[in-house]
Amino acid sequence: MTATRVRERKSPRQERSKVMVEAILEAASQVFAELGYARATTNKIAERAGVSVGSLYQYFPNKDSLIASLHREHQTKVHRVIEKALRRFGDHSISLEDGLGLLLDELNQIHEDDPTLTKALSREVMRESEVGERVHDGEEEAEKLKQLFTLLFNRPDVRDGNHTIIAAIMGQVIGHLTRWLQHDAPSDLEQRALREETIQLLVRYLKK
What we know:
Oligomer: single chain
Structural class: mainly alpha
CATH class: Mainly Alpha
Largest sheet: none
Radius of gyration: 19 Å
Distance between the termini: 46 Å
Strand content: under 5%
CATH topology: Tetracycline Repressor, domain 2
Helix content: over 70%
Number of strands: 0
Shape: elongated
CATH architecture: Orthogonal Bundle
Order of helices and strands: HHHHHHHHHHH
Number of helices: 11
Number of domains: 1
């Protein structure tokens, strides 16, 4: 698959076009969340957005390009949170407990602000799409991990070990846990207690 398959055909310039593209992306988020990848179609997405399929195709050549755009939207929010976390982990006056707690809270807030988008980008949907592997393997993600393990290596309260591997594990664990806490944790478990236990798990893995 070439990169052109997941790139929008053009960028909206007029305000009316921008509003239409936003409506299409919102509709795509809803349809992917409700129906999954296989059953979602550009026709259903266009109908949900209240636009013609032709109008949708002006900006998105196929449903994979829609998933790619939704993923970029989500990743932009995640990267902002990571940037803040990187600054906090670099400040040794901020404890690991506080830094990790704030990171979890801010990642959870992304899910709370747009749970439909998070569901639309579930592992199942991404695995079925043609863009799933490509969008999860970007250079920006690797650079963020590199920054994180460099900061962890410099912190006096972090244990010895292979910090590249530690950073990779942390990225996976935090990603899975934030999704689980927001969407799949049993409703009879108290959220604050879940948060505190999650922080303890992460701190005990990292701390000297």
